[in-house]
Write the structure tokens for this entry.
Amino acid sequence: MSERFKAMETKLVHAGEPEPRLAGAVVAPIFQTANYEFAGEASYHDIRYMRLNNSPNHIALGRKLAAVEGAEAAVVTGSGMAAISTALLTVLGGGDHLLVQDSLYGGTNSLLTVDFPALGIEHDFVDAAEPDSWRARLRPNTRAFYVETITNPTIRVGDLQAVVSFAREHGLTKLIDNTFASPVNLRPIEHGFDLSLHSCTKYLNGHSDIVAGAVVGSSELVGRVTNKLDHLGGCLDTHACFLLNRGMKTLALRVRRQNESALKLARFLEGHRRVERVNYPGLASSTSHERAARLLDGFGGMLSFELSGGVQAAERFQKRVRIAVVAASLGGPETLVTIPATTSHAGLSPAERERAGVPDSLVRISVGIEDADELIEDFRQAME
Ligand SMILES: *Cc1c(COP(=O)(O)O)cnc(C)c1O
């Protein structure tokens, strides 16, 4: 089925849609029903019920996501954290250990450091850009290696190809949170990862109006994740499925635009006298530039920069922007500005933040789909 559609743009529109169309509807309707008539299903997981992730809306999304990531299968979840927790609990149990990249999305960090130790699942943090340091962290019970495509808010790309070969050599399951790149900029399964995870809340839905997640991989692994999801209960409501499917149709248009605008903004910022440093893998000055250029089809819509003048300068900038919205999260049509030191990283001391590469004057931008020159003008006036 998916072979019929070759390009990313075409797959996003057509892949996975019901064939033949339901009652001729060009857009598949929302199956607003929790349960279905019994049809002789032989196993619990085959019973048709909304929590079991098998409505026509769920199935269409699973097929579309698999097609765009070049994978066999995918399942959508009630949030990005539902995707991450369910995937990790599928491949790990009490007594297991995993290697994780040392700067993680806050929710994932809390899951690993607060919740998992109580279940007997231990971890070690590693620098994903330093392959030589990994072997020393291996234990006999190490089962998995978990990374993110692009780190937040430092916007770096680790040595993802080395992660795959190291994990292969040591029999580890390779998981990657691909939220920041989106399938437009990276398809991790094609590079040998076992599971690609998404917060679809971000680029995939792309309109800042639902919370959703996805797990992408082989039929065998995604089948096991789906069974775990059936038990843990983090299913996506079909109304949200409909919105996610609608959002995904424009994913490539949005992300390609965001790639272009972010690069323009990054170049503008790098040349501005009030800016001390810009973190964006599309800039030659980024320590990740070479790796990112080799791996990614685009450098993404996320960047961060340090203003001279400390947190006061960052706060002044944030107060003065007129087009960008001051808000957390990312991946929507509107450009967003946040200061990690006062939001996502407020729990750390200034010294810990400095060590994590998150100085107090750091401003993080999620570039939207507005006119790039108008955004540059807005940033320019906010910095004067
Ligand atoms: C937002 C985000 C998550 C969590 O997703 P939710 O949909 O909020 O549960 C996980 N990983 C990354 C990289 C994110 O940006």
Summary: The radius of gyration is 21 Å. The first strand starts at residue 73 and ends at 77. Residues 79-81, 105, 107, 148, 177, 179-180, 199, 201-202, 211, 213 surround pyridoxal-5'-phosphate (CB under 6 Å).
